[in-house]
Design a protein that fits this description.
The complex is a heterodimer of chains A (188) and B (246). Chain A is mainly β and 188 residues long. Chain A has helices at residues 141-144, 148-151; strands at 33-40, 50-55, 90-94, 100-105, 114-121, 128-133, 157-160, 163-165, 168-169, 181-183. Helix content of chain A is 4%, strand content 27%. Classes of the chains: A mainly beta (188), B mainly beta (246). Strand 10 (181-183) of chain A pairs parallel with strand 1 (43-45) of chain B, so a sheet runs across the interface. The structure holds fe (ii) ion. Fe (ii) ion binds at residues 162, 165, 167 of chain B. Chain A: Belongs to the intradiol ring-cleavage dioxygenase family.
């Protein structure tokens, strides 16, 4: 029997966020894109104490990831962060006092054209999964099954070359509230 | 008017268990959940090609040997009752989750977090930051040495106190198995009054958040031993067979 979830609470600050947690792309890669946005609650107010995690395919389609997201200095234990070579596929950022976050990553491949996102927050007893698609994808099974207004909540808006806005609304009317996901054992 | 503990206890008693293992996200007695849970139903994804069926990996470069001993991170020794917390991380089929990252954080022995937003006027301990990490071994095992955290007040209702707990963050083989939770200590009278613990409405599920005191794990003259095994959710049987090495 599974262990139940509990809220991340307000005091994860020294434990979970790490230096350069949002720098998923290798240093200086010309393909780098920025995905950023605001997390909002049921009143539309920014959530200043949310934690977001990201996981995605590498541009070549591999999903194996790589260790080294929170690489450490063996002498003093400080977090050195990524070595700028490996694409670890994993990002972790806390929202700021305005509820904002940003990550810099490489575009996911066409066969999985999204960033998988997990949201944790004080007040949220069980984390939420969602996805940031970088464009409306014809033929994506999840998007195709959603009504148009709900589908729009999963599609990042391109603001300019290489910069995408993706806001998360934890609670709201159907057209506002982000689509959240749960994963079941595939049938058959 | 701010409700008191009796009012919150009555609210909690009025919630009918829904049979779920996890908390319902909108749990009235935990006031902060009111605006922070979705109202629309979650959308079920069954696509076997979902990225969420794989997950991030961590390695020896991501932890240091000292990370699992929270009592040795500073020049001096922290105040408080020395404890060890150990156990295994398993999937729902009982198989060990090996080589994965376990992260913990906790208040000090006085019930104060080393966090500037914690305004509880209990003393900070310059020799305790309350943060630990390790990778699970080839049996899924983890082990931390720390001090027992204190209970602390919060503002959910008047005279609200959180039972002593350690926060845990866990990764499985798949992003869909991600878990953040809290471990509690056996026999704490505050369990009955805590809306966060009681948001798990199934009694046996709630019991799985409480560690066991295991005398054989206590070390003479040094520390008391607690054991807590963690089982990650997720339809992992099908996924692991797809060839993911971990
Ligand atoms: Fe806590």
């Amino acid at each position: 029997m599974s262990t139940p979830s509990q809220t991340v609470g307000p005091f994860y600050g020294y434990a979970l966020p790490f230096a350069k947690g949002g720098e998923i792309a290798p240093a200086g890669d010309p393909r780098t894109i920025t995905v950023h946005g605001v997390v909002r609650d049921g009143n539309g107010s920014p959530v200043p104490d949310a934690l977001l995690e990201f996981w995605q395919s590498a541009p070549d389609g591999s999903r194996t990831g790589a260790p080294g997201s929170l690489r450490r200095d063996p002498a003093d234990g400080a977090v050195l962060g990524r070595d700028g070579v490996a694409f670890t596929g994993f990002g972790r950022v806390a929202t700021d006092a305005d509820g904002r976050y940003a990550v810099r990553t490489l575009p996911p491949p066409a066969d999985a054209p999204y960033l998988a996102v997990v949201l944790f927050a004080r007040g949220l007893l069980h984390h939420l999964h969602t996805r940031a698609y970088l464009a409306d994808q014809e033929g994506d099974a999840l998007l195709a099954a959603l009504p148009e207004d709900r589908r729009a909540t999963l599609i990042a808006r391109q603001e300019r070359e290489g910069v995408y806005g993706f806001d998360i609304r934890i609670q709201g009317r159907a057209a506002e509230e982000t689509v959240f996901l749960e994963f079941h054992r595939p049938r058959g | 008017m701010t409700p008191d503990q009796n009012a919150i206890d009555a609210e909690m008693a009025a919630v009918r268990p829904d049979g779920g293992i996890h908390p319902r996200r909108g749990y009235g007695p935990y006031r902060s959940s009111a605006l922070r849970h979705p109202r629309q139903p979650l959308v079920v994804v069954e696509d076997p090609e979902s990225v969420e069926l794989t997950g991030p990996v961590f390695g020896v470069s991501d932890v240091t040997d000292l990370d699992a001993d929270l009592t040795r991170r500073h020049l001096g020794e922290p105040l408080g009752e020395r404890i060890t917390v150990s156990g295994r991380v398993l999937d729902r089929e009982g198989r060990p989750v090996t080589g994965q990252l376990v992260e913990i954080w906790q208040a000090n022995a006085s019930g104060r977090y080393a966090h500037q937003r914690d305004q509880h006027p209990a003393p900070l301990d310059p020799n305790f930051s309350g943060v630990g990490r390790c990778l699970t071994d080839d049996r899924g095992g983890y082990r931390f040495t720390t001090v027992k955290p204190g209970a602390y007040p919060w503002r959910n209702h008047r005279n609200a106190w959180r039972p002593a707990h350690i926060h845990f963050s866990l990764f499985g083989r798949a992003f869909a198995q991600r878990l953040v939770t809290q471990m509690y200590f056996p026999g704490d009278p505050l369990h009955a009054h805590d809306p966060i613990l009681r948001s798990v409405t199934d009694g046996s599920a709630r019991d799985r958040l409480v560690a066991s005191y295991v005398h054989e794990l206590s070390e003479p003259e040094v520390s008391l031993g607690y054991r807590w095994d963690i089982v990650l959710d997720g339809p992992s049987a099908t996924w692991a067979e797809k060839g993911e090495p971990r």
